[in-house]
Amino acid sequence: MATQAPISPAPAADALQGAAHSFPRRDSSEADVMPIARRTAKLLAGGLRTALQPLASERLTVTPEQAIIDTHDSWLAAQGQSMGLAFYQLPPMKGRLALRLGHDLIAALVDAFFGGSISRAKTQKTEYSPADLRLMHRIADSLAMPIGAAWGEFGSFRCLAAGLTDDPEEAKIAKGDAALMIQPFTLTFAGTTSFTIDIVYPIAMIQSAREEWSPSQGPEAVTADPAWRLEMGGAMAEVFVPVRSILARPTMTLPELANLKPGDIIPIPPAQNIPLIIGDRTFARGSLGEQNGLAAFRIDHIEKG
Q1: What is the pLDDT at residue 20?
Q2: Alpha-carbon distance 37 to 206, whole Å?
Q3: What are the structural domains of the chain?
């Protein structure tokens, strides 16, 4: 009787191990970059529309897409042999970012600029003409202000145009294995004509100015200084406020009041809903009882407001 040989798990394990290394891993230090980049992209979308819509004389909608983390070499290889990149600096950040402008978008904008339609068939060109490069320079210069304004919401950043290129040899903005954040934007003109542009940030560039990020990133980013909290807690522990209560409100006739003398006892009937007063406001209500042989006040509920 033939027996079936056991199946070795080694090939499957090797395949999983190989697959695990085929994807870029996000470093834990990148987690603080993504939220501020998403908010910047939302702010920048309006600036892109304002700068690019007049070039086509058609209504434009700009939609920020999900940001992508990739390595520099992987991103550069995906661009092909010819690309249009405009470079910017965001001091006090260290380094430069890149704006990728595709052939199809530039050719369509040039055609629309000279009286054509933005919705023509997308070009298959692999090189930029002199007219394309002139328009790229114009776009690059016009986008420096909205990029700076978007980042200026989160710190003392300003944007400087730093040239452009269509040569892959001049496209390097970081080391080969450095992490990049690619922020795509979809440009949709009247009808269904759409294009994609990317703003590419080296992660290290954004992190280089972390201390410049202002608390305007959001209330969750504001944390109290531990030393200040300790001192404030100690100071509040030394603050005393007067607390009093009114146990009863008995009534007496005028003759009874006139005949009071030392040693007289005024009975206090059991009462509920007795107020606990701080200053001139009722803080809580409760009832009178006894604890450890002493009269005691038990809080039943705290007053609102």
Answers
A1: 41
A2: 9
A3: 32-221 (3.40.1550.10), 240-254+267-305 (no CATH)
**Confidence label for 145 from pLDDT (cuts 50, 70 and 90):** very high
Q: How many CA atoms lie within 13 A of 26 on its CB side?
A: 11
Average pLDDT over residues 145-171: 88
Region 75-103 average pLDDT: 88
DSSP secondary structure string for all residues of the chain: ---PPPPPSHHHHHHHHHHHTTSPPPPGGGTTHHHHHHHHHHHHHHHHHHHHHHHHTS-EEEEE---EEEEHHHHHHTT-S---EEEEE-TTS-S-EEEE--HHHHHHHHHHHTT--TTSPPP--SS--HHHHHHHHHHHHHHHHHHHHHHHTSSS---EEEEEES-GGG---S-TT-EEEEEEEEEEESTT-EEEEEEEEEHHHHHTTGGG--GGG-GGG----HHHHHHHHHHHHT----EEE--------HHHHHT--TT--------SSEEEEETTEEEEEEEEEEETTEEEEEEEEEPP-
**Residue 121 has what pLDDT?**
55
Q: Which pair of structure tokens corresponds to residue 85?
A: 């990149």
Output the CA angle 52-54-59, nearest 5 degrees.
Answer: 85
The token pair at 219 is: 């209330």
Q: Name the phi and psi angles at 291, rounded to 5.
A: -150, 125
pLDDT, tens digit (0-9, with 9 covering 90-100), for 247-291: 777 788 888 888 889 988 888 777 778 888 887 788 888 888 878
